[in-house]
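Reopening: structure tokens for the fe (ii) ion complex, inputs below.
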Amino acid sequence: MFSKIKARLLLMTILVCLLSTLLNFCFLLNHEAQIENARDMWLSADTSGTIWLESDRQQEIHVSHHAPLHWMHCLYCGINLIVMVLGICGAFWMYRRQKVSRSETQPAATLSENGLDQIVRSLYLAVEMKDSYTAGHTERVAQYALAIYDQMDESQKRMLPRNDLRYAGLLHDIGKVAIPDHILQKEGKLTPEEYEIVKLHPTTGADMVEQIESLAHISRGIRYHHERWDGRGYPHQLKGEEIPLMGRILAVADTFDAMISTRSYRQAVSAQAAYKEVLRCSHTQFDPQIVECFKKAYEKGALQVKKPGSE
Ligand SMILES: [Fe+2]
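Re-run output (same inputs, fresh job):
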């Protein structure tokens, strides 16, 4: 809606400038014709625009006011032309931007939704079969992400199709298939070197998903689901709204589920404690607006928290 208003304003600016330039140009031509007539009537004119009557050289008729008027019109014409050119450039820039964002939000879909569902399901099952700790995790993350999404306002929803978020949630950890088993299933804490390998999974997963043309546009959610609002996440240390919306939603859903799940290196916490921790990390780890939506969803019971292992 806002971009439509901006486009209309730009178009109106261009039209007004065009009309104003044309009118001014006509006025200028008319003005030139008047001066020419005066020159025909009078026999001599000096360069400053001071015109003398031949019959009575004692009588000086100053038409020097014509000169500043003339330059004012030229200047006005010039300003109008510059504003018009800027308007055209602005309109072109908006068109390009809209085209890029449309290509980001719309898949070059060639597969049916059913076909995509099957591909996505087989991919995330591959991770769950490899890592018992993530069993059920991907489905819960997708479910929490959608519950958060449903609390967002319409303008945000227009930027992100609901089904794209669902696919990104189901595939966010797909890159874990490339992590060696002895690291992925290690009992106890990881060494710094092992942790560096684990940190590659968002990049690996996004690169994998980009190979599927109909899913390539959701790879941003996968690549950036471990970024933090304060810029201290990984892999690219993006900050604030530099992080794609999909990544910001998945970060909250993923962390919430990770906290209520038992992992090899720590015990699960209660849903209430995890909820409070997410709220505490608003503005630092998470986008405050997404945390607000998470809060609404939790308070309405829309998250339908299932204890991992209860499925
Ligand atoms: Fe992850």
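The mean pLDDT is 82. The longest helix spans residues 2-41. Marking as resolved unless the reporter disagrees.
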